[in-house]
Amino acid sequence: LQIENLNGLDKKYYLHPTTVPKKFIEEGPKITFHKGDGVYVTDVKDDTYIDGVSMLWNVNLGHGQKELAKAAYEQMNTLAYSSSFYGYSNEKAVRLAEKVVSLAPGDLSAVFFTSGGSESNDTAFKLARFYWHLNGRKNKKKIISINRSYHGATIAAGSATGIDAFHNFAGSKDIDIIQAKSHLTNCELGDKSDPNYEGCIRDIIEKEGAESIAAIIVEPVQGAGGIHISPEGYLRAVKDLCEENEILMISDEVICGFGRTGKMFGIDNWEVVPDIMSVAKGITSGYAQLGGVLINKDIRDTVIQYDQILGHGFTYSGHPTACAVGLKNIEILERDNILNNVNNMEKELMKGFDYLSDKHPHVAKTRTLGLLAGFDLQADRDTDKPFDESIRAASFIVEECFKRKLILRAADFEKGKNIVAIAPPLIVNKEEIEEMINIIDATLTDFKKTLIK
Ligand code: PLP
């Protein structure tokens, strides 16, 4: 009765993000979470689920991590909040800035703190434009992003997002943000015969003119768009293109950062150094709302010469409690050698994927980088043939896994694309991976019986 009451209040008062409102009003919440422990979460009905996607790819150290809770508690008892505006500062923000810079690749030298990924990407775009502005290149304003990317929900980050479903709500887009039509293809290497050349990054630079372009933003591994791992040479080619044309390269590390891909940052897998890097999510494992933008030495040295007010910032920029949690989170990542676990569990997950694709012919393109994993479901994987649109294969698998108490995520925004995403907390163990694979295995068997005749 109490739960029904809660569901009634939920439907009445709470407008949910990224949810189908009409369905929500009819059906109420799918699950109301109550508590968590490691890779498991328990709902208000006392049913326990495996969190196979770390909620929103962020609960990297798993649920119920007491040390993170303690760090927040202690900081809240000392100084819960203080401003970072007008020259004010706090110790935890300073120490976290130093720590994050020490982990970042190349000459990334300073951090601007935000409260999440969208704010980080908006800040990255503004900083890129501001850098060119300060250099007297006021026309360099345009930002190029990639097809199938996800960069956030604010106007600018949403405009950069290359998934149409996220544009319905925007009202209008930032006209200086251009989405490349290409998707991780060879045209960036200069191959004009590539069928994807039209609308690829290189083509956009040629058409718009480098003098109008401030930055290119990429995710080293696209998450929400369907776990697309940058192919070998791709990020290097983008970086070279940036250098040739005096364009800044932004790496969106909101999902990839802080160990998700088996290296500290996603881009470290390719040894490319971006000019700007945006982070969020894994910086606190989701225990506090925090993001940041790292800038290279040249950008830092340029911006710090500015002698008027830097008219940008958020009330929660450098939030002491969030930063205390971030510091503790990184301390645990290093102390417990979490990256090592990620690399070991990547192998276990791939073993599981091999088993699934041997047994189920519709499982295609199994892939993982660290613990950012996915697979496609196809009618015929040998000919790359998608399912008929009426067969919502990825949604079916995700729904069925949910009934069996495993939370996964579908990426099926595009016609014919059926991708299942898996990204468990980085502390997952072998038995828990096996448990996940067994559940997926059972749902794939059901899928064949139910949807494929
Ligand atoms: N960038 C990437 C790659 C993301 O996956 C997300 C969120 O999923 C964002 C940015 C936006 O972050 P936030 O939701 O914290 O604003």
TrEMBL record:
InterPro entries assigned: Aminotrans_3, Aminotrans_3_PPA_site, PyrdxlP-dep_Trfase, PyrdxlP-dep_Trfase_major, PyrdxlP-dep_Trfase_small
Pfam families xrefs: Aminotran_3 (PF00202)
Superkingdom field: Bacteria
Listed GO MF terms: pyridoxal phosphate binding; transaminase activity
Keyword annotations: Aminotransferase, Pyridoxal phosphate, Transferase
Record bears the keyword Transferase: yes
Family: Belongs to the class-III pyridoxal-phosphate-dependent aminotransferase family.
Name listed for the protein in its UniProt record: Adenosylmethionine-8-amino-7-oxononanoate aminotransferase
Organism encoding this protein: Alteribacillus bidgolensis
Upper lineage: Bacteria, Bacillati, Bacillota, Bacilli, Bacillales
